[in-house]
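User: Some background: our group keeps a shared notebook of sequences we're curious about, and every so often someone picks one and asks for a predicted structure to add to the entry. Today it's my turn. The entry only has the sequence so far, pasted here. Could you supply the structure so I can complete it?
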Amino acid sequence: MAKRNAFYAQSGGVTAVINATACGVIETARKHKQRIGTVFAGRNGILGALREELIDTGKESAASIAALRHTPSGAFGSCRHKLKPMADDPREYERLISVFKAHDIGYFFYNGGGDSQDTANKVAVAGARLDYPVTCIGIPKTVDNDLPFTDTCPGFGSVAKYVAVSVREAALDVASMCESSTKVFIMEVMGRHAGWIAAAGALAQVDGKGPPHIILFPEIPFDRDKFLAKVKASVAKDGYCVVVVSEGTSYADGTFLADAGTKDAFGHTQLGGVAPTIAAMVKDSLGYKYHWAVADYLQRAARHIASATDVEQAYAVGKAAVEFALAGKNSVMPIIVRKRAKPYRWEIDAAPLSKIANVEKTVPRSFISKDGFGITKKAREYLQPLIAGEDYPPYENGVPKYARLKNVLAKKKLPPFR
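Assistant: Of course. Here's the predicted structure to add to the notebook entry:
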């Protein structure tokens, strides 16, 4: 087969390990120089292809690419850009194919969540309809852990570990102060419709006991009276109450507790702070002194405390994406398959993009305790191995030393896209 170039891009919210996936893609491609020429990275995701802003990763040293494995965020820039259906607006697809032709791109690797897998699938369909041969592989990434088929999503394990560690440490702080000060601590975590990250807060417990006392899931409709009664009971029993709340917690009618009233580029409701909303309820109804925190970007950027399992899996899906493409597979996404729970064993397989795009995997009811405020043994057995192991980055002057790429753009060959 003829040697062709590749395009790789990062999309959606970045993670502590998405660059480990990029490392897997680029290092594996470099081992197959007879089949893959230059690996171009899109500057700011799919926008890089539309704008013909292609980063030539061949300009980076092997050491710089290797350093991506321990570097958080998106080294090439990400975006939230949703392609319209081709029938509604063919211009973007025609532009993509024009750029691919101009730079002899025959492999398309798109690294992101559900919306990104939709993009990868649409590009695969466009290539066929516009008679341009391009192999499209979606690569999983999402801290929300909500992609179907795959046992877990790269990025989730590290967020889960950060949340579990942070909740355990904050709980110790509250416990030491509760006699004469703070009674309630609330930690808000990410998770629009799926409460996987919130569930991971329970891993802070020792032998399944202790804080967090309450977890609020998007999957369980919020009941104000029931919640306040649980807070009151926890304070009465332990002297304090630790709450982990998912940003997507909503009432029975589907209204988010923290609806900010705006939409993002994918049409998703922009969520505000649910933690202060919950805190106000506690203060107004129970009068307890409280503190709250919003983990926000901290939880997904915390590479210094990443899960070793997560790092390994993130690299593996990047490596597999290239191997799948070279094996002739198209319109698929590498997935992680759990082969054994104890000891934890997994392998990589593939699933069709057409069945993954825009499908959300939520926390099953069997993973949530009967009262709706905690997790079950089954959930704990699923979650525990995903946060296992440490993979610390190198340190310099007391702080992590992360990769700094040149990100040299390839010379443009086409007029600007308007």
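Suggested note for the entry: The longest helix spans residues 156-177. Residues 248 and 360 are 14 Å apart (CA to CA).
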